[in-house]
TrEMBL record:
Pfam (any one): DUF5319
Region spans: Disordered: 1-27
Organism of this sequence: Nonomuraea salmonea
Regions of compositional bias (Basic and acidic residues) in chain numbering: 1-10
The protein, known as: DUF5319 domain-containing protein
Amino acid sequence: MLEDVPRDPFADDPNDPSSAMGALDDAEPLTAAERDEAITDLADVEVFRSLLEPQGVLGLVLDCPECGEQHFFDWDLLRGNLKQMIEKGQPQVHEPAFHPDPADYVSWDYARGYVDGVIDTEERR
């Protein structure tokens, strides 16, 4: 029923407060170097997940340079953000994790070190 759908109170209003936010589609495309870095990060996340998820790790914790706080990303959200950055030049909008247990997440550096340790162990066999 269309009557049940809420109408945008600012539809066609030139003073729409959300207009200050800008259009989401106006993202600058990634440079070749940024795109290559995002592709490398996506590959790293896939490896991290394959080795760490069976150990009970739910995702990564990243320090946010903008707000100075830690953000917890599960594997699917991290993967989705990187794929969208590669395709559209910006990460997807997402909700932060709800009361994440920090013990379930590891840092990027920890994940990288874990992978390096697994590779070193395999090479010594």
